[in-house]
């Protein structure tokens, strides 16, 4: 099947084939083509060019972009969108002044979500999660990484991962699964953290690996959660199954998580609200993508990651939503892009690249998503006519999306 998008005012985010990610200065540029068309064949970008070079093809479906922008869909490389219910009660505690750590220490937080998930059937969990998947696709997200970590027992972690697999099989969005058994210590193991880590290594990981349920492994390596030594142990064990890490580090404290992630060849280290120059040095030349989650900083009132310093130091940066019920109840990547500009002082181009090609890299899919490149998936956003690329994050609540195409097919 062939689809032609024509009358494109600006085709934005063009990259040559083979570019895996953009580092430092490279992040400051978004290649655009004015007055353009794109051809998508069998779900994949087959060509693009200027309208005056377009040829008629009688067998194609034509979509008139009416002078709008066409850009690659957002890639959201860090989410927890499979969860049950919500945590609106804790929202009140937060407003009343309790910190994220205080809520967690009272047995709320992640453990609260684990209780809700335990009481929810797999079918119902899938139904609730698909509502959020549909929500993010409509907002222009074309690829998403989804973590487990609200199970915290072998059975419930497997339940979550099976739901993620079902989303992979049934939704048109590209999905990557991340096993986050080390998100918090399960209630039954309270005070026995060492034994819980052994459960992850000796029981959960082998089962997850034998069912092929995880593309990645994650650990919440931070103050009050898992130590560097525990993280090291879990990642060493995961490596035996060939599962690559993408981890939570330095949200609450400079935890050493970045260094342990780099040591294990992590694809990304995420959060980084707290960073010193040592983390930047550890990341240099590592192939590990520093990923920041400004929606979490916004919601919890934490410092924003030092994205600008990273870029000035020549490093790449990815941005993701962290969509979850406790620290970032939103998967709106356009808002993430806006926070990248407004609160982290990235230019619109840097923020655009952080939310597309670099976040695709952070989930190992920048060969098939994250830019306008022949051979990549036809996961595209068509907008209303816009005065500039900057308008996307600047006027961040204006409904500019006209259509989202996944694999070349418009969302209904
Ligand atoms: O990325 N930091 C750890 N995990 C999530 C929050 C999970 C929750 O509170 O439910 C995060 O912010
Ligand atoms: Fe997270």
Structure description:
By secondary structure, the protein is α/β, with parallel strands linked by helices. It has two domains: 2-73 and 370-410, Urease, subunit C, domain 1 (Roll), CATH 2.30.40; 74-361, Alpha-Beta Barrel (TIM Barrel), CATH 3.20.20.140. Helices cover 35% and strands 23% of the residues. It has 15 helices and 16 strands. Strands 1, 2, 3, 4, 5, 14, 15 and 16 form an eight-stranded mixed sheet that branches. Strands 6-7-8-9-10-11-12-13 form an eight-stranded parallel sheet. Strand 15 (401-406) and strand 16 (409-410) form a beta hairpin. The radius of gyration is 21 Å and the shape is globular. It starts with a strand and ends with a strand. 55% of the residues are buried. The structure holds N-(iminomethyl)-L-glutamic acid and fe (iii) ion. N-(iminomethyl)-L-glutamic acid is lined by residues 80, 109-110, 113, 220, 248, 251, 296, 322, 324-327.
Number of domains: 2
CATH class of the largest domain: Alpha Beta
Question: What does the average pLDDT come to?
Answer: 96
Bound molecules: N-(iminomethyl)-L-glutamic acid, fe (iii) ion
Terminus-to-terminus distance: 18 Å
Give start-end ranges of low-pLDDT stretches.
none
Strand element count: 16
| Helical amount | 25-40%
The CATH topology of the largest domain: TIM Barrel
Structural class: alpha/beta
CATH architecture call of the largest domain: Alpha-Beta Barrel
The main β sheet shows up as: 8 strands, mixed
* Number of helical segments with 4 or more residues: 15
> How many whole angstroms does the radius of gyration measure?
21 Å
